[in-house]
Each structure stands twice: as C-alpha cells, then as structure tokens.
C-alpha cells in the first residue's frame, strides 16, 4: 500500500533555542524623562493629585501609629554603595511593606543632593496571617488591612513624601504598566515574594524597565525558602540573559 502520510518538518530543537524562549525581549514605550516620571505616575494612578494630599483620611486617622517602620535587611551597606555608584534619578522598589528600605533610600539620596523619585510597587496586603506576632499593630477593618495607610504614615513622619510614591498594585500589573508608560529606572530593588515563581516573574518584569547601565538588586539571596527560590530564580535569569551576579551582604546585584 502507498504511504499517504504527509511529510512533516520538525524544527530542530537545541539547548540554545530553548534558552532563547526565556530571554527578556519585550520592548517598552519610549523613555519618559526622569524629571517627568513622578507626574506621569500621579496622572496615571492618582488623577494628577498626590495621594499624600489631605492624608490621613478621617476614617483611618485613629488606626495608625505615628511612625512604625520595620523590615528585613533594609539598612544594609548595599543601599549606600549602589546609590553612590549609580546616583539614580528614578528608583523602583518591588516589595515595600512598611517602607523601611524606601525611606532609607530617600534619606540616602537626600544626603547626596539627588532629586530622586522612589516608586514603591506593592499591593500592600501583606500575606495571609502576617498580622500574627510582631505585626499585630497593623489594624484590620472589615477585611481591609491598613498596611498602605501605615506605610504612608511612616513616609509622612519621615519627611519623605517629596520622593517616595506608592504604586499600590500587584508587581505584575504595576511593572507592566510602568513599561507601557515609558518609565525606566536607574536602580531597581526586588524584595517581594521569596518563592521561585514569584522571584522569577518579578526579576524578569523589573529588568524590562531598567535603563541601560542601570543596576537591579534584591534581598534574600541566601534564604532557604522554597528550596532557595530567590537564589535559583536570580541565577537562572542571569544565565539566560548572559549577566553576572555578585553579592553585597545578603543582597544579590546585577549590572545591566
């Protein structure tokens, strides 16, 4: 019997072509000038008005502490080292919580006379059960945790409202929109989810908005969470994109 099957050509799959599928290739909108970044985000997120105007609103004023700043690794030498090196005009922080790192960076840029904007990407929901133990002071009303408001109160009390600006959405949606709006950062800190999938997504999305010559870095490089999830994600990202990882204390650092 005649062979009536169609001839099919299968593309040759190699390790190199498989790796190419994972490399960062997305191109963002044309770069917004650094001096216009703050107003761009205000226009897109807050209808042109600062979220600190009239803060705090009456319904939460009695639920906030004057200043309660807590974090992890937020005062490491890496912050001063990189800010002195890069002298950033635009900083993006992915994972903010109560603002320890962002407020510290605001103080460092102020000391150096830098006119910098620090965009804080976080949904400000914390994680399930985070209010147990030492974070019980963060109030919770009708399913709404006061984390964003406490972060803003900390920023106000630290006199950092001129540089620090919350972008209160998930890292995925916020970083995608910053890319579409043409916001590029000189310095990006990634310190959100510590599992592989979260860290992998955050690093990839954040790198897309890093200007050429900028630096991306993050905490928890040596944490054991999710079988060293951050370490695995950062190293894989660097390998696929032909970049080098170096460390500064507990932080990983990648120069673009």
TrEMBL record:
<dbReference type="Pfam" id="PF13578">
    <property type="entry name" value="Methyltransf_24"/>
</dbReference>
<dbReference type="InterPro" id="IPR029063">
    <property type="entry name" value="SAM-dependent_MTases_sf"/>
</dbReference>
<protein>
    <recommendedName>
        <fullName>Class I SAM-dependent methyltransferase</fullName>
    </recommendedName>
</protein>
């Amino acid at each position: 019997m005649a062979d009536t099957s169609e001839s099919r050509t299968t593309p040759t799959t190699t390790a190199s072509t498989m790796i190419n599928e994972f490399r960062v290739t997305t191109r963002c909108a044309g770069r917004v000038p650094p001096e216009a970044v703050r107003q761009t985000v205000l226009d897109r997120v807050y209808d042109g008005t600062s979220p600190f105007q009239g803060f705090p609103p009456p319904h939460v004023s009695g639920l906030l502490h004057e200043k309660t700043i807590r974090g992890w690794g937020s005062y490491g030498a890496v912050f001063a080292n990189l800010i002195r090196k890069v002298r950033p005009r635009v900083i993006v922080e992915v994972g903010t919580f109560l603002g320890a790192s962002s407020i510290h960076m605001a103080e460092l840029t102020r000391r150096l006379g830098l006119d910098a904007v620090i965009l804080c990407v976080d949904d400000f929901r914390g994680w399930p059960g985070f209010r147990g133990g030492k974070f019980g002071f963060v109030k919770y009303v009708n399913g709404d945790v006061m984390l964003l408001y406490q972060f803003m109160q900390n920023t106000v009390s630290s006199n950092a409202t001129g540089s620090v600006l919350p972008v209160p959405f998930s890292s995925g949606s916020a970083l995608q929109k910053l890319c579409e709006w043409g916001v590029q950062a000189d310095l990006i800190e990634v310190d959100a989810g510590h599992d592989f999938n979260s860290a992998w997504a955050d690093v990839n999305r954040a790198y897309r908005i890093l200007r050429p010559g900028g630096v991306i870095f993050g905490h928890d490089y040596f944490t054991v969470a999710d079988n060293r999830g951050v370490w695995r994600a950062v190293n894989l990202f660097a390998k696929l994109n032909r970049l080098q990882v170096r460390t500064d204390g507990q932080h990983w650092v990648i120069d673009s």
